[in-house]
Design brief:
single chain, 264 residues, alpha/beta, D-Maltodextrin-Binding Protein, domain 2, 9-stranded mixed sheet, two-stranded antiparallel ribbon, 32% helix
Length: 264
């Protein structure tokens, strides 16, 4: 065989070899405005969706795909390996009971109390939450309830209506139906988005100065996931370093964790 033919044969063999496949990373998410929003077509929107799109666009070692879960089910789904990673959770939200690794925090947020503004109402309206009709979110951790997300325990201790939507809860407050809803517990980031979209309605709300809880939000990684927490952290840090992460978070009014804007 001539040298040219030999090189041609080797080249054809090289072309026939499979390229290194991307490693699929399954990312769990549930409706957690404005961190994660699942639209009517089942697609992931919000900051988590934007971050996944950036990660997929910027590298080819890993391919991140979305897997829907639910606030109450997310721990069981994680333990059963229905997903590998969940973005922007507080490690203190019951994750201590499950094997996991966490990146450093990238975001910070707070839960605030919200009522309908009336002339006679001030901050003292939020002093005795057990006497109020509350609206909150299924499966979420709240400071006033000792961070216990058990909806049965919540309904036993408080006059509380649980839903899956901050927006729905604020609509109940704005409807001025005190028997159904006097105080909603809403994240500061969602309130910022609501204010930008509906400033007239936001002006009708009394928002507490006190904070129900403060949480620092990291990525949670399963120990058997095909990506490590360190690798995922370094990938997100690339978005931080060039300002992309701060720009994406600002679109949703989500505060950055101290140091995130400029890296560690």
């Amino acid at each position: 065989m001539s040298l040219i033919k030999r090189y041609a044969a080797l080249w054809l063999m090289a072309l026939s070899l499979p390229l290194a496949a991307e490693i699929t990373i399954t990312v769990g998410a549930y409706n957690y405005p404005s961190i994660a929003l699942i639209d009517d077509q089942g697609a992931l929107r919000g900051l988590a969706g934007d971050v996944l799109a950036e990660l997929n666009q910027r590298q080819s070692d890993y391919h991140f795909v979305f897997q829907e879960t639910a606030p109450k089910r997310r721990y069981m789904d994680f333990e059963q390996r229905r997903y590998d990673v969940i973005l922007f959770e507080s490690p203190s939200w019951s994750w201590q009971a499950y094997r996991h690794y966490a990146t450093r925090p990238f975001l910070s947020d707070q839960e605030l109390y919200v009522a309908l503004a009336k002339p006679e109402r001030d901050e003292s309206f939020f002093d005795d939450l057990q006497s109020r009709a509350l609206v909150a979110i299924f499966g979420f951790h709240y400071g006033f309830a000792g961070n216990n997300p058990d909806d049965i325990k919540l309904t036993e201790r408080f006059n509380i209506d649980l839903s899956h939507s901050h927006r729905r809860n604020l609509e109940l407050i704005l409807a001025d139906r005190p028997a159904a809803a006097e105080v909603a517990v809403v994240s500061r980031s969602f309130l910022a988005s609501f204010k930008a979209q509906r400033p007239e309605d936001y002006a009708r709300l009394l928002v507490s100065e006190r904070v129900d809880q403060h949480h620092d939000l990291a990525a949670i990684v399963h120990p058997e996931a095909p990506v490590t927490a360190e690798t995922l952290e370094s990938m997100i840090d690339l978005l931080v370093a060039d300002g992309t992460f701060a720009k994406l978070a600002a679109q949703y009014g989500i505060p950055l964790h101290n140091g995130t804007e400029h890296g560690h």
